[in-house]
Amino acid sequence: MNRARVQGWLFAGSFALALLLQLMPLPLALAPLKPYWIGLVLIYWAIEMPERVGLGFAFLFGMAGDVMTGELLGEQALRLVVLAFIVLRFRARLRFFPMGQQTLAVLALLLNDRIVMLMVRGFSGEAMPPATFWLAPLTGMLAWPFVYLLFDDLRARLRASE
Amino acid sequence: MRTDNATLFAEGSVSTLRLIVYLAFSVALMVLDHRGHYLEVLRRTASALVEPAYRLAAFPADVARATRTAVATQDRLAGENRELREQLLLAQARLNRLDTLVAQNARLKGLLDAQKNLGLSVQFARLVDVDLDPFRHRIVLDVGTNQGIAIGQPVIDAHGVMGQIIEVLPNTAVAMLITDPTHAIPVVIERTGLRTIAYGSGAIDRLELPNIPISADVKPGDKLLTSGLGGRFPAGFPVGEIGSVSNDKSGMFAAATARPSAALDRSGEVLLLRDQPQPYGPPALQGEMGPPAELAGPAPDAPPAAAAATSP
């Protein structure tokens, strides 16, 4: 029971941390490289705990992201619903991919997310972003193994301490 | 654990129908928000959560800056101090000379009975080091409605115009920088008086002036000032300096780029202009003017005489 509570804290804490990391500034030259932390954390939990992270959860979390950083209510909700849908659809395979392959799959997911974002912003009348717009998925891909291993390790420790 | 006994290539537990419902829902939300700006209302309602999150997210950057100052060598600080003192001396000298000009100007304006020029009333604000979106040029300031900040107030630093306030929370405000791709600011070229508009380019060190008449006299190095048209920014603040001039694609206009004067990427402290800019449009009607009453002839309510007195 205690374990379930700690697990719950880890779950909620990781999402809160993702929102904070998304807000944290990087030096100006590196700013476009900031990975989409919110998306990475959602991918992780959608792979590991699909019974808790459904489309509805992704939608609500996206709304929270919009309230924190967004300009248009619903933009991140849409992006995260698309992200969660693809992950949940292919979860059975994503889960058992070797790390390298999984990382590439995350790159594809994040690139797709950028395309969705571009579509949304295009429709709301914003200008085309510069070419550096496409760099964030690459850093997101590089960050993925660390996110995955960190959370897996934390969860394994929780299980072991039981 | 429904999905654990699914085969490797089976479809997951989500149905496409639910996806479509959620997508439709979020699109509807975006359309509504695009028209009604409900996000701002929501953010203001949730400000008790949003504002601490901003402060918390800015905390590591603040600590890093404080550490850098703490471990900076005394040598460097002394150098910086000397430099600042020289700058202050220069600024003070310039101000002293300006004071006499201001007095003279006020006297001349009084003689001309011109519209009153508002003094510069500013409010100091500090940046909250938070990155909302690297492709949108927004800054977060640590003042809000509780400090009397309102939407539309111009934001300046020591060197020029930075942007304007677009959203206020109780203790936080969000400003759009002049380099945001959706921002435009009416400017006048100081040397020639040519009026045009400077658009944000999406790059932090560049403004674009895409529609200057081809015959206009614009050279690299020309200074741009706010023109005061549009009623948002008061006239006469430095905006930037022309960097390059070329023809646009159609050949009908000259297109120039400019470098913003304000230190958009470096300012840690900014000033918010308190006054609304001078009202635009023609000046208010003056009271009835004419020759002194004793010269105007008979009683003023006699129509023919009054007409005679007012006609030139």
TrEMBL record, chain A:
Matches recorded under InterPro entries: Cell_shape_determining_MreD (IPR007227), MreD_proteobac (IPR026034)
Domain of life assignment: Bacteria
Assigned keywords, A-Z: Cell inner membrane, Cell membrane, Cell shape, Membrane, Transmembrane, Transmembrane helix
Membrane topology recorded in Swiss-Prot or TrEMBL: Multi-pass membrane protein
Entry-linked Pfam families: MreD
Annotated TM spans: 94-111, 131-151
Subcellular location: Cell inner membrane; Cell membrane
Protein purpose: Involved in formation of the rod shape of the cell. May also contribute to regulation of formation of penicillin-binding proteins.
Family: Belongs to the MreD family.
Name under which the protein is recorded: Rod shape-determining protein MreD
Organism of derivation: Dokdonella soli
UniProtKB/TrEMBL annotation, chain B:
Function field: Involved in formation and maintenance of cell shape.
Residues in coiled coil: 74-101
Species for this entry: Dokdonella soli
Name of the protein this chain belongs to: Cell shape-determining protein MreC
Superkingdom field: Bacteria
Segments for region (Disordered): 274-312
Residue ranges of domain Rod shape-determining protein MreC beta-barrel core in the record: 128-273
Keyword Kinase among record annotations: no
Entry keyword set: Cell shape, Coiled coil
Pfam families listed in its UniProt record: MreC
Biased composition (Low complexity): 291-312
Record-linked InterPro entries: Cell/Rod_1, Cell/Rod_MreC_2, MreC, MreC_beta-barrel_core
UniProt record similarity statement: Belongs to the MreC family.
